[in-house]
Each structure stands twice: as C-alpha cells, then as structure tokens.
Design a protein that fits this description.
With 148 residues, the chain is an alpha+beta fold. It has 3 helices and 7 strands; from the N terminus they run αααβββββββ. The chain has a domain of 68 residues: Immunoglobulin-like (Sandwich). The strands form 2 sheets. It has a 4-stranded antiparallel sheet with strand order 1-2-7-6, with no helix packed on it. The longest helix is centred in the N-terminal third of the chain and has 9 residues.
Length: 148
C-alpha cells in the first residue's frame, strides 16, 4: 500500500528501503582510544600566515616551558604538542569559577607550501611560540658537476 510520501514523490516510503542492520555495518576508522585522547586534549590557539619567503606560525602557550613543547615538522605539516600542567593542587569543590585549561594539547597544521626543514627558527616569548618556516624554492636549479 502506497503511503503519503510515495504518492507525493512517486517513490518508495523511506521505511521500505531502510535496513536497521546497515547502521552497524559501517567501517569506522577511529579507535576508542583515539576518540578519548582527542576529547581529553585542550585547545591550542594559533595564527598561521605567510609572506613571499616564509610561513609563520604563532601559538599561545601560556604556562608551558619551551622544554615541554614538542614540534614535529615535515615538508608540508607541523604538529605542536605538549602539556600545560597546573602546579597548584586545588580541589574542584573549592572553585567558584574555573576557566583556565590544563592538560595535553596537540595541533596539526597543514602547510600551503613545502618548507625547508633544515632552516626553521623557533622562539618563545611571553607565552607565545613563534615558528619561522622558510619556503622551499622548487624553481631553483643547481648545476651538478660530475666528478672523475
């Protein structure tokens, strides 16, 4: 028996084409550990911009020592990770307002151009991490002499 939707659209009712088991037959590429890890991480705010020769990344890292920051770089990706740890032991029931974030952070930034990973500069000042990433010159040509 045709329902209202099939009369209106000329098609089948949604329930006729829907198999409840299909919901559970999908492949999910995330493990539970990955989902939990992402939910436990705090946010890392960044600005990323470029000029003709360089890409710059600035990240707010207040209360994090430079030695506690890991920066992993490939030619087209930068990953900044670390942990912001509270040194004070205050129980949650003592707070009447709590806005500061403590814990692990990680941010992966895809770069618009390949970079020269041998000449990267990093500095930290007043809670701001700055990365200067020189762009590679793909059009640069070098003559190679064959040794004898």
């Amino acid at each position: 028996m045709a329902g209202f939707l099939s009369k209106l659209t000329g098609g089948n009712e949604p329930e006729e084409n829907f198999n409840n088991e299909e919901i559970f037959d999908t492949d999910i590429n995330y493990s539970v550990d990955e989902i939990i890890e992402d939910n436990n991480q705090i946010s890392l705010s960044i600005d990323a911009f470029e000029d003709e020769d360089n890409i710059y990344i600035k990240a707010f890292i207040p209360s994090v020592e430079p030695k506690d920051i890991d920066i992993d770089i490939s030619r087209d990706t930068v990953t900044i990770s670390g942990e912001r740890s509270s040194v004070e032991e205050i129980s949650n029931d003592q707070y009447f307002q709590k806005e500061l974030s403590w814990g692990k952070f990680s941010k992966r930034i895809l770069l618009p151009k390949e970079i020269d990973i041998e000449n990267i500069k990093a500095s930290a000042h007043n809670g701001t991490l700055t990365l200067k990433l020189p762009k590679t010159d793909k059009d640069r040509k070098v003559k190679v002499k064959i040794g004898g």
